[in-house]
Amino acid sequence: MTRIPIQNENRAMTALSVFVSAMMVALSILVLAGAAALHHLDVEWRHALADRWTIEMESSDTLHPVDVEKALSILRTIPGVIDARLITQDELRRLLDPWLGVDALAAELPLPILIDLHVSPTDQITSSLFSERLSAVLPNAKLDDHESWTRIPVRIAQTGEVFGLSLFSAIILTALSTIAAAARARLAINRSEIELLHTLGASDGYIARQFQTDPFRSAAVGSLIGAAISATIIVIAGRVDLSIAPMIPQLYLTAKDVAFLLAVPIGATLLATLVARMTAYSLARRLP
C-alpha cells in the first residue's frame, strides 16, 4: 500500500514544533539538574555535621591554656566522644572573616574558645544527655549540635527538590497535551484523504504510522537544541563561585545524574513519536 498523500506541515508550524520541543527538553533538563543538585546539597548538610558538635567556652583572654587542655582531656573520656579538638584562633578568624570582615577581627575583638567534637553516631548519644554530662565538668560551656541552624537550609533544599519534580511533571503533561493537539490538528487537515483510504481498506495502524514521521523529526531536532542549551547553562552555572556564601557549598552533579539527564532528549523524542502515533490511531478508529 502506498503512502498516504497527506499535507506536510508548513515551515512556520515545523519551526514552532521544534521550538516547543527544544524549550520543553531544556526546561526538563534544567529542572531535573537543579533537583539533583539540591538533593546532594541536602545529603551533605545532613551528614557533614551529623557527627560534629561544637562546644563554646569563655574568651581565651580569661581562660588559661592549661584549663583548656584539661577540658579536652575530660571531654575525650565521655562515652560517645571519638575526639575533641581545639579550634585555633587563626581558624576561628578565617571562619568569621566572611561574616564580620577583616576590620572587625583586627580590632582585638574577644573571641571565644571553640572545641570541635567528633561524636560516634553508633553510640546514639543525644545532645541533651551530653549537655547534662558537660555541665557537670564544664558549667560555663555551651553545646551546639548544629541542628537548630541546619534545619532551615535542609527544609529549603527538600522544598526545592519537591518543587523541581513537580515542575518537571507539569512540563511533561504540557508536552503531552501539545503533541496530542498537534496530531489532532494534522489529522483534521487531512481528514478527507484519510476517510477515503480508510474506506478503501487502509488499517488504523497504517494510517497512524503516517503521522509519526514529522513529530519524530521535530522532536529529535528540538531535543538536540534543548539539550545543547541546557548543557551550556549547567556548565556556566557550575563555574559560578559560591565562596561569597559560606553556608552554601558548591553545587554539583554526579556521573549518574549526567547519564540520566542525557537520556531526557532521547526519551522526549520517543515519547513525542509515541504520543503522536497513539493520538492518530485513536482518532483514525473513530472515522467511518
Low-confidence stretches: none
Helix content: 55-70%
Percent of sequence in beta strands: 5-15%
- Please give the largest β-sheet: 4 strands, antiparallel
Mean pLDDT: 75
Which structural class matches the secondary elements? alpha+beta
SSE succession: HEHEHEHEHHHHH
Adjacency order of strands in the biggest sheet: 2-3-1-4
Structurally, the number of domains stands at 2
Tertiary shape: elongated
Count of helical regions: 9
From the alpha carbons, calculate the radius of gyration and give it in angstroms.
31 Å
Q: Secondary-structure blueprint of this entry?
A:
Layout: H1 11-48, E1 52-59, H2 65-76, E2 81-87, H3 89-106, E3 112-119, H4 127-137, E4 142-144, H5 147-189, H6 191-199, H7 204-209, H8 213-238, H9 255-285
Antiparallel strand pairs: 1-3, 1-4, 2-3
Helix pairs in contact: 1-5, 1-8, 1-9, 5-9, 8-9
Overview of the molecule:
- The chain is of the alpha+beta class and 288 residues long.
- It has two domains: 11-46 and 150-285, no CATH class; 50-145, Alpha-Beta Plaits (2-Layer Sandwich), CATH 3.30.70.
- The chain has nine helices and four strands.
- The chain has a four-stranded antiparallel sheet with strand order 2-3-1-4.
- It is elongated.
Defining key terms:
2 domains, 9 helices, alpha+beta, Alpha-Beta Plaits, 288 residues, single chain
Summed up, what is this model?
The chain is α+β, with helices and mostly antiparallel strands and 288 residues long.
